[in-house]
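My main concern about presentation is that the manuscript never shows what a single data entry looks like. Each protein is reduced to its one-letter sequence and a matching series of backbone shape codes. For the editor and my fellow referees, an illustration may be useful. For illustration, here is how one protein appears when written out as sequence plus structure tokens:
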Amino acid sequence: MKTAEIMANLAAKHPGENEYLQAVQEVLESIEEVYNQHPEFEKAKIVERMVEPDRIFTFRVTWVDDKGEVQTNLGYRIQFNSAIGPYKGGLRFHKAVVPSMLKFLGFEQTFKNALTTLPMGGAKGGSDFDPVGKSNDEIMRFCQAFMTELWQCIGPDQDIPAGDVGVGGREIGYLYGMYKKLAREYNTGVLTGKGATWGGSILRPEATGFGALYFTQHLLHKAGKDIQGKKVALSGFGNVAWGAATKAKQLGAKVVAISGPDGVCEIPDGITDEMIAYMLEMRASNRNKVEDMATKFPGQAKFTAGKKAWSIPCDIALPCAFQNELSEDDAKELQKNGCWCCCEVSNMGCQPGAIHYFQNNGILFAPGKAVNAGGVATSGLEMTQNASHISWSAKEVDDKLHFIMESIHEQCVKYGTQPDGHVDYVKGANIAGFMKVATAMLEQGII
């Protein structure tokens, strides 16, 4: 396999799909050496098949707003790879959603799901619908219209969507209500991230953030460090950032910054339980303004417009918001301000220049497909509970999440340890996920 040659062919076939091409290139660069040690992969053209999704559904979503005006959006479901299990991946409602974004997310999801130790393939979906400023009724009507087009493409053993940016428990509820009406069956295993009273798993809302901090703990211990007393800066204030802030505080860290599209809130004395609870209200308001935190807690949080979380001095940076949110300049600013560790909690949260800067300057770094896999892992646990018609306790779920994140860290160390002893977590995560998916594809024949 020659990465440059494959990337040139892919770029010619999919011009302008920069996020998708970026995600593929990062993986191919990591696995090239290992791949070339397996001529059976080359003969079966595993990579050429793996980088293309199995299928893409595109559909129109028509709905009526509160003014009675008809609105039209585009909806998508990208079923990327089902070699190790049914398709599994979130739905993203955001104005920037385009096929390139969802293809990158579905590709990443394939490897992330492989790392979890659970039998789940990779998928992603969503719409360019913008929830910001929409009423509850408008969101309900949009979700119902979206599911009207999607429902025949999904199922508990076929494709199991979940939430993502812009899609939380409320949206999953509206989506499932319409699915149940259309399919005429009560099968809660078709979606994850559900409400606790109708098949949802305890700890699922917190799982991505909790799992990310468990992984970060393992990474720090491997490096001879500890999270206790360390200053943490994180971006975003949705479910993921909320879970990360909650667990960071529980583990004894001090969250000193959260950010949003409008700027950053510095919290010199560390985030409080009341502030963490308020993050959920901020997300539910659909205002998308982190300034609300400073308004609610004057004297404790200081808002600065136009700045990122990475402008605040910290030990550990946790990107929790969106892809490519942390640039090389941000990485330099972080190091200048004393940061020595960055773990991606968002999918592909760091630009390639930032990743290379971290790696070349001795800053501990781990990629999203390993760090944030606790979310989809707990979705897998939710599927297991649904299939068995049981509900586990918080301790049972948390114990399983701990085990999965430790297993992911061990896989990264196994495949990412370099001759000088340091661990390349990017390479480790990519090789571990690739080997599992590639082996399954090889054993299932040319399909």
